[in-house]
Fold this sequence. Notes:
- The chain contains no helices and 38 strands.
- About 0% of the residues lie in helices and about 45% in strands.
- The chain has one domain: Methylamine Dehydrogenase, Chain H.
- It is mainly beta and about 450 residues long.
- The strands form nine sheets. It has a seven-stranded antiparallel β-sheet, with no helix packed on it.
Amino acid sequence: MRKEKDKIVTNHQYHCISEHGSEKATTSFGNRIVMLDGKIHIAWQDACAPGPTSGIEYTYNKNSYAEYPAQVRSFDLDSGTWSPTVTLARGHDNHCRPTMIADSTGHLHVIVGGHHTVLRHYRSVAPNDTSEWETLEEFGKNTYPVLVSGPDDTLYLLVRHDEDWLGTDLFIRRPGGTWSKQGLLVTREAEHVGYGAFAGGMAVSADGVLHYVTDFYEGHGVYDPRGLKQAVASMRSCDGGRSWQRADGTAVPLPARPEDMDLLELYRSTSHEPMVIVVGQGCIGLDNFGTPYVFYISHVREAGEMILASPDAEGIWQKRVIDPTVTGFPDHRPKGDTRGRFVLTADGQMHLILSLYPLDHAGWQDGKPTETLKHLDEPIPVVKLTSSDFGATWSARQLDPPREGGLIQELNMERSSVHRPIKGREPCFIFFDGLSRYPEEDEVINTRVHLAPDG
């Protein structure tokens, strides 16, 4: 593992922690930030590791022009100083996106994987410290890791299945054990043999109940037609992932389809839908009673409908549509950038960050986003919404860009967890400033990675 002394640039309320970020530097369904005993620990992806790379212990990189290293470092709140950057591994491609949590002892855990590559589990040698790491295990061959911990330090990992985009696998690592594959949690329809995406999230309550939400995005072709069936659905497990049920207690067979689960939104199309029409990307949080709240965006009825859903005492899901005028930009709507943007803290505060796109932009068609909006690398309003009454009312403030003409791309908030509940403060967040499109052949895209330590 390589350590490097890095320059820190502070601009307004942001800290620039890397000038070598990739085009997906902070993109992740999983958590990237842990605040613990006066330190903020961060995991992100660079495009290239500056300086010599011979010290990197593990490489499964196919690109000679971009290394995609998974990076970690820490900020000491008392001294105002940063630790050196530590490189855990180089990636197969820009899907090498680390996800990080802390266990009850304060040890940090990071899962690193690439695009259909072996997953690696790292643990910090010392609690609350990113300077030295040990490799615990290699396992699986999956994509898009989401890592959470139970109250007994059992680790739960969601990853997309390796073969034919079949669905989402669940792995479990119990204290003192190794990673065990539990099989598919959800799967696609048999007729949808093309590309599939199952962006998901999980939250664990104090009594160990697992609450899971996932998107379904399925089609017949690898590239076309895509998105013929799209859905957002949820289920829970009261026995550590052994069995699953709806919020009303109805058993859910595995691997589940959205109709088996608590189905929150469904969209069907007979033609190619390259963009997501219903999208939650794993946005789930719990209140102090362990009740789940799910945020998602739907373009089914109108452009950028913002929906907050939660089950009542009988297990029936109730939905609240957020008034778009509360953002302060009534002629703008979100297109679906939701991953890592919804957090419910231990003091009952809801935090939601939205990137807003003008409705008169050519990238909207019949109230739905088109691929023109997919990598719109130009300044747009980014708004932080906060609610103290579980979504009945919201306050809003626009986030400043890191520089004049700068961008706030792929913002990712610190998640509240069973061991590290966020209380009495706003969640930290990270983002990058630069291009988000995929690079051309032999091109390296560098972005600036920023931390907002005060939310």
